[in-house]
Design goal:
- This protein has 504 residues and is mainly α.
- The chain has two domains: 217 residues, no CATH class; 279 residues, no CATH class.
- The longest helix has 37 residues.
- The model has no long low-confidence stretch (mean pLDDT 84).
Length: 504
């Protein structure tokens, strides 16, 4: 709970700060500089795919020794993490040098001086190297359910950095130079403060481990998990990167821009959802380490019910409030059709539902189904192209959602229960169908009540905020009340929260 609350608050603050800072940067430095930052970050993100899987593989391996209090094993696994990250750092650095040789061609159409991309990429690369070479040991905090300490350090420093950068750009004649300098200074500050926090929580990690490269033979499961995770991470990256390209290919630029406005809303919702459930990964890993199968299934049911409640309420609110928000924010001419909005809401719902399944798969460290992300990528591209050819943007969104349903909601639950947890799958199917039925019932009631409330959220920003609160309370009361009355898992989750709060 502490991890989730801290992450949620900091995510909200980061969103507000980012909104105002981005406006200042665009107004003063121009959209080309913002595009340069985005491009440089994308290039570095592609290079950092080399790291894919190491972080998660180490975290999974740490759950058991942390639960058992085996300090020697924790030291060795963290040392192995550091050795692997040093290899990754060397590969990323070499790849970066090669890529920078082509910067004159990559940024040939840019009107900015050539030192802009070099300086921008260099600062981002420096920050990435700090993460790989200095802060790799923060994984111990994450695996020990203390990730809130890292978040407080990293996110608060990032907030202060963003505010300082905005002021520097606004008041300085050399705003972008100061932007880069502050980026490097705060990255250094954040790295070393995080390292101090890690050592304060795990003082025994200060002790050096000799020949960490030899530990790959002592913990062969780490490299095995890295191998499997690499396919999953690259597959997920490919899916997220190809969908926008398909949209560009079939839709007009104006349609893409209008869809992008809605996508910003959904992206922020996914970020809030990730922050809200960020404390679960290590907690589930700790639960798996206990080895109590009955307790594990009980907690799974409670977490599934809580997630379905939050996702259902959020989806209903997006359906009712997205168009009014776009109207207040940008104008009525940017509102899209109801069919497109339905595809967006359903895509958000499906993408969020698969999260709890994936959390339990990750906690067990089972990634043998390396064909799944590759199959999802192929289906995503195939279904999206076919849907785009037949129905345009709505078909593209529907095709992407269909691939998520097949892999995320059909295969992944089967894989989790049949191969990972070795439990019957039918209780999950009955639960999921029950929650979908309750959502359908609540949605029908809300759609009947909503016109009777005489709300006008499109009238003004203040009216939208007031009406949004009413809609949220209505959906939460109906969905939450019905689930609490009819579902034992929901009652168990509420009891767990009350018990946790009463003991703190």
């Amino acid at each position: 709970m502490l991890n989730s609350v801290v992450a949620l608050i900091l995510q909200f603050l980061a969103m507000l700060a980012g909104f105002f800072a981005r406006k200042i940067i665009i107004d003063i430095l121009g959209t080309e500089v913002v595009g340069l930052n985005t491009t440089a970050a994308s290039i570095l993100g592609g290079l950092n795919l080399v790291e894919s899987g190491i972080w998660s593989a180490i975290a999974v391996t740490l759950y058991k020794p942390l639960f058992d209090g085996d300090r020697q094993a924790v030291r060795e696994i963290v040392a192995l993490h550091g050795w692997l990250y040093r290899i990754v750092a060397a590969i990323v650095m070499t790849g970066s040098v090669v890529v920078m040789l082509f910067f004159p061609q990559i940024f040939a159409k840019s009107e900015l001086p050539l030192w802009y991309p070099y300086a921008t990429f260099g600062v981002l690369l420096y920050s990435s190297m700090l993460t790989l070479l200095v802060n790799y040991n923060r994984n111990a905090l994450y695996a020990d359910q203390q990730n809130y300490k890292v978040l407080l350090c990293a996110r608060l420093i990032a907030l202060v950095k963003l505010i300082c950068q905005a002021f520097a750009v606004y008041y300085s004649k050399n705003g972008y130079i100061w932007w880069l300098v502050l980026e490097a200074v705060f990255a250094t500050l954040g790295a070393f403060i995080t390292r101090i926090v890690v050592y304060k929580s795990f003082p025994y990690l200060r002790e050096k481990v000799s020949h960490p490269e030899a530990l790959r033979f002592k913990y062969p499961e780490v490299l095995e998990k890295v191998k499997y995770l690499f396919f999953h991470k690259v597959g997920a990256y490919a899916v997220t990167q190809t969908s926008p390209l398909i949209i560009y290919g079939f839709a007009s630029l104006s349609m893409v821009a209008m869809y992008g406005n809605y996508q910003i809303l959904v992206t922020n919702l996914f970020s809030f959802m990730a922050a809200l459930f960020s404390g679960l990964e290590a907690s589930i890993g700790n639960l798996v380490a206990e080895g109590d199968r009955k307790l594990k299934m009980k907690v799974f049911g409670e977490l599934l019910s809580s997630r379905m409640l939050i996702i259902s309420v959020t989806a209903l609110c997006v359906w009712l409030l997205a168009d009014p928000l776009i109207t207040v924010w940008l104008g009525p001419e940017y509102v899209m059709g109801k069919t497109t909005l339905l595809m967006i809401v359903m895509g958000f719902f499906v993408g969020s539902c698969r999260g709890i399944i994936q959390s339990f798969v990750d906690a067990h460290g089972e990634y043998r189904d390396i064909w799944a992300p590759l199959a999802e990528f192929v289906m995503n591209v195939g279904f999206s192209i076919l849907g785009g050819w037949l129905w345009g943007l709505d078909g593209i969104l529907g095709g992407a959602m269909l691939s998520q349903i097949i892999i995320g909601l059909l295969w992944k639950p089967y894989f989790l229960f049949r191969w990972v947890m070795k439990e019957p799958m039918w209780p999950f199917i009955l639960l999921f169908v029950r929650y979908l039925s309750l959502l359908g019932l609540v949605a029908a009631v809300v759609l009947l009540i909503y016109p009777l409330l005489s709300l006008h959220p499109s009238a003004s920003l203040l009216e939208f905020l007031l009406d949004a609160v009413i809609v949220f309370v209505l959906c939460t009361a109906l969905m939450g009340g019905i689930m609490y009355i009819l579902d034992a898992n929901t009652r168990g989750f509420v009891s767990r929260i009350i018990k946790t709060l009463s003991t703190k």
